[in-house]
Design a protein that fits this description.
The protein has about 375 residues and is of the alpha/beta class. It has helices at about 5-10, 15, 55-65, 80-90, 105-115, 135-140, 160-175, 210-215, 230-240, 250-260, 260-285, 310-320, 350-365; strands spanning about 25, 75, 95-100, 115-120, 145-150, 180, 205-210, 220-225, 290, 300, 305, 325-330, 340-345. Helix 4 (about 80-90) runs parallel beside helix 5 (about 105-115) and helix 11 (about 260-285) packs parallel to helix 13 (about 350-365). The structure holds pyridoxal-5'-phosphate.
Amino acid sequence: MKYKRMPIEMEAPEGYGYDNIDCNLSESSFTDQRLSDLGISLEDIVLFYGDHKGKPALRRMIADEINISGEDVLVTPGAAAALFIVATSMLDKGDHAVIAKSNYATNIETPRAIGATISYLQMNFDNGYQLDLDALEKMIIPNTKLVSLTYPHNPTGVLIDEDTLHKIIAIIEKKKTFLLMDETYRDMSFVKPLPVAATLSKRVISISSMSKSYGLPGIRIGWIVCRNQELMDTFLAAKEQIFISNSVVDEEIAFRYLINKEKLFAPVKQMILSNFTLLKNFMEQQQVLEWVEPQGGCVCFPRIKKEIAIDTRNFHEVLLNKYSTYVGRGHWFEEDGRYMRIGYSWDKTEKLAKGLSNILKAIEDSAG
Ligand SMILES: Cc1ncc(COP(=O)(O)O)c(C=O)c1O
C-alpha cells in the first residue's frame, strides 16, 4: 500500500478549526448531535472487546429493517473502515476496478494506494451526472474485481432509479464481477429510497453509516451488508486484523439511536428538506452559479458558470479569509475550482443563508 493524504482530509474543517469558520458549508452530514439531543445517557457499560462482527442486537436491528439475516451484517468503525476493508479484500496490485468519478475521495484513493488499475466512470455536469450503463459494461474486463458506485451520490446528491439499479446488477452478474455500493446517504433520499443493493444479489456489497443522516460521525459506526458468506469471512478477517472489534461504547449509542430512529430521524429529515427549499430558492434567484439539482443527501455540487472569468483560487481564498465561509473545494473531488460542494444541513439555517450570500460576494470580488 502506498498511502497519500487526500486534500479533502488535509483541508478538513476540523483541522482548520471550527471556531475559525463563521459559515461552515463544507460538511457532508447533518448537524453533529449531542448525546443529550438524543435523550441518551450512558450508565455503566462493560468495556470489553465485544462481538467481532458487531453487537448482535445492533446487527439484527440493521438486518431486520431490510429483511436479511444478522449474519449478513458486519459492523465497522464508520463507512470509511468498511470501504477500506472491502477495497483491500477485493483488490490486489494490478487488479482492475471501475470507479465512478467524482466520488467520495476514499473510494478512489484506497484502490489507488493498493496499486489497482482503475477505469473511471466519469460523471459529467453537462449530462446531469447520469450514469452511462453502456460505458460501464464496456469498462468491465475479465480482470475487473470491483465496480464502485455511490448513491445518493457525494458530492452531487444525484440518484439513480430502481430500474437502473436492477440494470447495473444485471451487468455485474453477467460479467461475474462485484459491485461495491456506498449507500451512506440512503436515508436522506428525497424520493423513496432505493433498495439496499446487497439485498438484490450476492455479488453486491452495500456500505452504510451512522455518520451522515443522523449526524453521528463521532461514534464511528458503519456497516457492510453482503449475502456472500465467503466474502463476509474475508471482511471479518480484515476487520479483526485492523480493529478486532468496534468500540462497545459507540455500538451502544448506535443501538440506542436506531431503537428510536423513527422519532429521532423525523425532525432531521424535515430540517434537511426545509434547508433544501432555502437552497433551491437561492439557486433560482441568482445568475452566477448553475447546478444539477440533488435528489437526496445533504450536499450539492454547483459550479460557477463558465462564461464568468474568475480566478478560482482567489475565489476560495476570499470566501474563506474575507467572508469566513467554507465550502468543499472542487479539487477535493479532483474537479476544477469552479465547482464547490455545498453542505446545506450541517450549519444553522441562518448560517446557510449567510454563507450562500457570501459565495455570491466572493464571486463578485474575484471575477475579472
Ligand atoms: C459517500 C461516503 N462514504 C463514506 C463516508 C465515510 O463515512 P464514515 O464517517 O461513516 O466513515 C463518507 C464521508 O464523508 C461519504 O461521504
